[in-house]
Amino acid sequence: MNAVLREMVKQADGRYLNDEELQPFEEYTSSFVLRFNTYNLLQEHSQQLILQTLRRLIQTHRKTVQENGDKCQRDMAYTLGCVAKAILFNDTPGYIEGYVLWMQNITRALHKQDSAVEAYRLLQTEIEATLPADSARLVNKHLDSLVVAFATDR
User: Fold this and answer.
1) How many angstroms separate the Cα of 145 from the Cα of each of 10, 48, 124, 152?
2) What is the pLDDT of residue 54?
3) CA-to-CA distance for 91 and 15, rounded, in angstroms?
4) Is the pLDDT of residue 28 over 70?
5) Phi then psi for 112, rounded to 5 degrees?
6) What is the pTM of this model?
7) 44 to each of 49, 51, 59, how far by Cα in Å?
8) CB distance 91 to 31 below 8 Å
């Protein structure tokens, strides 16, 4: 369960939540089917999405893909796994704090920001072409955070 919801239950200690306090629970449950289905779609299609992305990336970053294709594939798979979990648990803040900032630092240290931005934008294009529109928007919203982090100099 999402950290905000857990905290609300904890603060209610010994009393029933009022209608206003129940609103986040309603939002959480009403979006669950989409989040659950999106999680399953990512689990089912992630390998295909990644391979198609790398095929497209090789056209513009041949050397990078040839030298680091296995690492790119591993990182994209891990990223999609983290996105899937963030979506399932409705925990975008945890995803940004726990994953996006970490990947931003690693990518910056390796001086791979440009190829990472290109790779994840191509991945977003593959996601739009493969997943249903609602799921694609949900996944790409999370990937947008990663692309922005890669493109941002801090």
Assistant:
1) 30, 22, 12, 11
2) 95
3) 26
4) yes
5) -115, 20
6) 0.87
7) 10, 13, 26
8) no
Tell which wins on pLDDT, 79 or 7: 79
- DSSP assignment letter at 15: S
The per-residue pLDDT for range 34-76, each reduced to its tens digit, is 999 999 999 999 999 999 999 999 998 898 889 988 999 999 9
Q: Which amino acid is at 147?
A: V
DSSP calls for 111-152: T-HHHHHHHHHHHHHHHHHHS-HHHHHHHHHHHHHHHHHHH-
What secondary structure letter does DSSP report for 10?
Answer: H
Give the CB-side neighbour count of residue 150, counting CA atoms within 13 A: 20
